[in-house]
Amino acid sequence: QVQLVESGGGLVQAGGSLRLSCAASGRTFSSYAVGWFRQVSGNEREFVAAISGSGSSTYYADSVKGRFTISRDNAKMTVHLQMNSLKPEDTAVYYCATKWGLSDPLPRKYAYWGQGTQVTVSS
Length: 123
Known about the structure:
Distance between the termini: 40 Å
Oligomer: single chain
Largest sheet: 7 strands, mixed
Order of helices and strands: EEEEEEEEEEE
């Protein structure tokens, strides 16, 4: 069982930055890939970024590539999403999620989810 808690969301102007954190509890955290997803009310959950259990491999949606960076600290059981050059279209609730094994862009492949944190980017 893995529990996840996101933090770091908030209101920021376009062009600004935010750093989201995902704190995990449970054993063998380094065996779990972690993904960040976002969702706007009424829309499907959208893949943002993912990182392998070791942290050696990262994956990004085209819409955030070059602006967002995912990283993890397995000793602290934490994953971060650094978001720079934010745009109004980045506004959404951001979720972190974990799955055993390899990273995947499909939300349905992830077994454990956090409660989400709101990110609002004003124009």
